[in-house]
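Morning, I've got a small favour to ask if you have a moment. It would help a lot if you went through both lines with me. I owe you a coffee for this, so here goes:
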Amino acid sequence: MNRSSATRNRIVVTIFALAIVAGATWFVLNRTSDATAESGVAAGSGAQQLGENELAAIAAQRGSISITVEAPAVVEPVRQLSVRGGITGTVVETVPEGTIAATGDLLVRFDGAQFRRALGQAELNVQQAEIDRQRAQVNLDRAMRERDDAEALFQSGSVNRGARDAAREAVAIAELDRDLAEIRVNQNTLAVEAARADLAATEVRAPYNGVVLKTEVGTGDIASSGTVLLTFADVSRLRVLAEVDEFDVGILEPGMPVRITADALGTEEISSTLERVSPAAEVINNISIFTVSSVIRADQATLRPGMSADLTVLVSDDTGLIVPSNAVSSVRGRAYLDVYEKEEVVTKRVVAGTDDGRETVILDGLEEGALVIVPEVPGFTLATGGGDANAEGSSIIPIPMPGAGGGR
């Protein structure tokens, strides 16, 4: 993904609310003739006023609210490996880009002549070291016999102390020679193992089922140990990576539903889930950017590594009765609404769902068509009069304040 062109993502709120009392009719209960005059339509404006003894209400109607986070994304393989050479040598064979390989298939071959010679020499060195060890053991055995004889002669008085000590010293030297020969055997054995590994490294094989995305060397090139030979990837699964800023990342969690779209997909959409959210931000152009990802199977679509896409995370999606957010009050985590019933304002406990900051879905505790008291309505002055009503066709309904008196 081109991080320098990353823009600040924003929460996209999709509201599929049903039309609320289309062309609703204003009605006034328990209004006096003076109040009627005060709430008349202003000339040429199409606006109305609430009377002094009236509240505003809105009829709860069924609908749905969705909150999503959208971000541009890029497609990458789930597993990708830069295959490096383990030896310095001349490349004699390499597969072309796009080659599909199974585990163990040959990808790159080096000239192995010098490595076969090195292995042969190392094996000869091991044989020589083993012969030297056997000779050292023979010398040690002889020295030990001579020492034993010298010990017996010394006890009988046939030889002096110096002869006995010399025999003991000869054994110690023979033991050191035998130990040194053993070390040389081990050293040359390790050299054989290294030579075999170098010879094996002349053939670079696929570590798993995948495809060659890019080759870095060709036939005749001399590649040093550690040089990248090719890029190999398992494309059976793809990871879609997107960047979101610090304002959106707080509401994202792994497991949330994800929708993936791309120009390569046309009108098709891929459904997945959010795999991970990066634990730390990367600051780009003074903006803290977090990386989020989703994994899909390659057979789900025609996406390929390097393609661009759009990733949409569904944060919340509820269907129920739609009411203004400012009509919902919360006490100790419980939601309440004031509802006008039987010429009274009744407070009801409800179950609130998705809230986009302007409207809220009520999942339970409210009946469709119930008149929900709206504390503040733009264009109205509630319970005091003097404000302008919404334009004609608004679903805001003026109702009498309970206990205000008056007759219908």
The first helix runs from residue 33 to 38.
